[in-house]
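Lecture notes, structural biology module. Today: joint structure prediction for complexes of two components.
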Amino acid sequence: MQLLKTNNIKLTIEYNGLPYSGWQSQKNEKTIQSEIEKAIFKFCGHQTVVQGAGRTDAGVHALGQCANFFIDKKYSEYQIVNGLNFHLGSEKIRIVSAQIVEEKFDSRFSAKIKTYRYQIVNRTSPSVLLSDFSLHIRPELNVDIMQDAIMKLIGKYDFSSFRARDCQAKNPIRTLEDAEIKRNNQIIHISFSAKSFLYQQIRIMAGTLIEVGLNKIKPQDIPKIIDSRNRSLAGPTAPARGLTLVKIEY
Amino acid sequence: MQLLKTNNIKLTIEYNGLPYSGWQSQKNEKTIQSEIEKAIFKFCGHQTVVQGAGRTDAGVHALGQCANFFIDKKYSEYQIVNGLNFHLGSEKIRIVSAQIVEEKFDSRFSAKIKTYRYQIVNRTSPSVLLSDFSLHIRPELNVDIMQDAIMKLIGKYDFSSFRARDCQAKNPIRTLEDAEIKRNNQIIHISFSAKSFLYQQIRIMAGTLIEVGLNKIKPQDIPKIIDSRNRSLAGPTAPARGLTLVKIEY
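The predicted structure, tokenised, for the full assembly:
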């Protein structure tokens, strides 16, 4: 099927990641990308590929994922939002907005800053209110020393120590533009902002910071871990639970 | 049954309000208070009354509700938290902490400041991620004029215009210590802090502020609505959905 690229549509998307095997289409798996592609097909009869800005892992939520796709029919932004949401039905996915953008716009490569946030409930009893949206850690985390450690991650580095072993990126150099940690009583938020991340970089950085908060890794070890380019020196990969793709800036 | 008041226990409690008919015990209704009283009975064999600081309506959540009760047995704070959480089982209620306090402590009357927060999702499509924790309002709310209006509610006033018709408080004078409204993209938070509130005062203040944001009530009308002591001049009672009892300060 020849596709006339008359309209490049940018979507801003919210989803609850728990019922899905992540963003990216995979055979025999229910994914967010494939559900949106099905909704587009039902809406306008196009079999199209929806390119996502962040390929979130299974269980990761999004408040402001972005994606784009091409269709050769003309629709208003209002028609697209309402049409796709109608066809998404009871899926835990909602199109927040649609925008007709220039042809060269690419949701993934045009992104300037992607911001992800971990929510941790740090107390004895797990949360009943936030359980689907937080990671539960029982021992008290020392946020002050985590703060020291997070500052040492900000910057342009070879993040080989902080990527999954099956990460396929050729270049392991990334720039962590901003990162912060905040405690509000028993709730801790850790956020990371960068143009792009290596595969599972956020979950490994979070897992390492948690080890720092538990006094298992020292903040001054962070530069050594970076320099080593050795995945086994960083902390474990934190669970997907509690991670949300907050926003993509272009 | 004579109860020896040897131990006054203060609980900090989190709950998801959706499955319950509010905090307060009512015949033939599943309430948060009655589920906690059942858990205490299973834990230590005491039939006791748990006095809550805020009597939240059906559907209202709590991150930091406080309550107290008396028992004549000695338990550590750790035993109380774990014992009650064990007996609460799959209820959407969790004891966050327990504290043995002096006999005169009363969770309701000793409270200095109670803070409640509304979360509003202000956009075309309802949220799939926040739906249980937010009120969905489609038309765009003007937060700047809501900000003007909220400032006019802060202070000590006769809040008769802002209480439910069946409110039983003898004195309608309350002091709203603080209130604020913040927008972060499509999510709006409105919070209210006071020593105590009239019945449904928060929901009526929120409903009135929403009318302001929709240009149906002007900020400069707020003092007139207060002066009138006439419930029918204020806005509608906002739904319970999206309201959370955030914390109680003593």
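Point to remember: Residues 164 and 181 of chain B are 23 Å apart (CA to CA).
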